[in-house]
């Protein structure tokens, strides 16, 4: 029984799942860093990699980031890049 | 063009990640959306429960390997 509990514990520790939105294909490092900083401030980052220019946020955090990117695009003009979202 | 995709982040040790990678490669429809790093995968949420069950199964089958990995032994 002890072995079984230990196995169960190890399995629990070995694989964790979190529903998320993965953001990719940032046009510039500047865009990426500014949006990532904002997401960190909101405390919604699950995973990020600056070299790959990718980050993942919680499901709850996703609408906030989507709005932030839209506003940023409006401010920077229509040529500043687009945004698409699959859900 | 910024892209946002919905899915599930799996966080695991590198050994379990290898198990999931080989599971993904042996299937007709791959479920891994993005291989993030050594300990993180981004996958199709619909497959998460099945992946977890399979990993659990494999860990049970390979009890002796787990014993070897246990630092308390």
TrEMBL record, chain B:
A biological-process GO annotation? nucleotide-excision repair, preincision complex assembly
One matching Pfam family is Tfb5
- Which region is the signal sequence? none
Q: Which UniProt keywords apply?
A: DNA damage, DNA repair, Nucleus, Transcription, Transcription regulation
Matching InterPro entries: TFB5-like_sf, TFIIH_TTDA/Tfb5
Q: Which GO terms describe its cellular component?
A: transcription factor TFIIH core complex; transcription factor TFIIH holo complex
Record bears the keyword Transport? no
> Where does the record place it?
Nucleus
- Chief subcellular location equals nucleus
Under PANTHER family, the record lists:
GENERAL TRANSCRIPTION FACTOR IIH SUBUNIT 5
Q: Which family does it belong to?
A: Belongs to the TFB5 family.
Q: How does it assemble?
A: Component of the 7-subunit TFIIH core complex.
Q: What does this protein do?
A: In NER, TFIIH acts by opening DNA around the lesion to allow the excision of the damaged oligonucleotide and its replacement by a new DNA fragment. In transcription, TFIIH has an essential role in transcription initiation. When the pre-initiation complex (PIC) has been established, TFIIH is required for promoter opening and promoter escape.
| Protein's name according to its UniProt entry | General transcription and DNA repair factor IIH subunit TFB5
